[in-house]
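Course assignment 3, question 2. Fill in each field.
Student: A.L.
Task: Predict the tertiary structure for the chain below.
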Amino acid sequence: MTQIGPFIPLLVALALGFIVAMIKWPKVWLATFLLSLPIFLTDSGKGLSAQELAMGGLFTLSITVWIVWRIAADPRPLVRTWMDFLILLFIALSSLNIVVAMMNHVDPVGWLSEWALFFLILYYFPIREYFGDERGLKQFMTLSAISAVGQALYSMYLYKQRMATGLVYAFQLTASRSVLLGPIFLVAIVFCILFIFAVRWRHKLVLFGIIGIQVAALVLTFTRTLWAFFFVCAAIVMVFLSMRQRVQLVAAGIALSVIAVGGLSVYNPKLADIGLRIVKARFASSTQLSGGDYSFETRVVEAQAAWAATKESPLGGNGLRATFLTYSPLDKQHFTTSFIHFGYVGLIFKLGIPLALLMVAILLVHGTYTIGDALRLRRDPATNIYRSVAAATAAFLPALYVTIFMTGFFDQRFGNVMFAFVFACTSITHDHCLKRTAPRSL
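Answer field:
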């Protein structure tokens, strides 16, 4: 508290200004939120800093006030679909987890800081509200693209900072990586690929540049799962393209890959050689689940320990921020942690099976809407922005489900913000489809 004490008057003024903007200029409020994500989503790695605490509190407070204001001041229903209802139900019921957490001696402040992350999902409500028409959707996609570029550039900058020495060794390349925002880089690539076929030539060049930045950032995460799902998502994208567009996409991908590898080889042959060896080693280690891939082996041991603790309290869980004892095969020692890399296991451990199933129901309803709307809009003109957004969201869906499994998705800022993004995209396209099929009045 002493860290932010001197800044409390400034924070109060900013909060009031943010809330005023939220009501009078909602798009400015949402744009501020989206453009702040490169800083907000990047973990300092040193606990909860004053900056992270201030931004998190501001964003959580503003969306809470907006929800209350929207329900009280607007006669239109906020809840339109089953997904809306289930998300609000999940957040409401998860508040009861504080009782379980305190019974397990969890710090209430720590519990609150993790529970508040779920409120970031609610941003999809105002995004749908103010960016739902065609013009607004274009604005939302533009703001999201700028935010994604900022996140990628900042991530690469931090990577360079961690590469402190002048000599480059293989261990430096992987040790300096950050996997945190990898899923965001992947979803940005998927959306840009589909938009390339929907915009004019001058905009295509911009999208190619964005894809290049996102691919570079994705490569520097050294995350095999995301690399593999890049090709899975690209294959699904092709379902929504014509044969000519598929050929163009494959040709462009091969050409850009050759240019990138060739350019790096000319610029720094040693770095290119080490990089390619690491890529091969990363994929090769995936076949060795014991004694080879210590990262995956550690996660399996971690999940087993969490699941054993879950069996003691399967219905209510152990509470957000609850800890358990696990073992590291790499360090050969036991340690206590509250973070679980396997997201679904972590959700069950902390909230219990019923609430975890409720979240799975949300994901299944979202997936049903996403796939259904993408198929309905599939034969629309390529220039239809709703078609591109629906197809991109559907193409990313398998990667989303697997990313949740492989990362601590629910207790990370980026995970809940990504939920807000994909839920908003699905809600906007779903509303568009409903309006198209609604009977016309005489």
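Instructor remarks: Residues 167-171 have pLDDT under 50 and may be disordered. Strands lie at 324-328, 333-337.
Grade: pending
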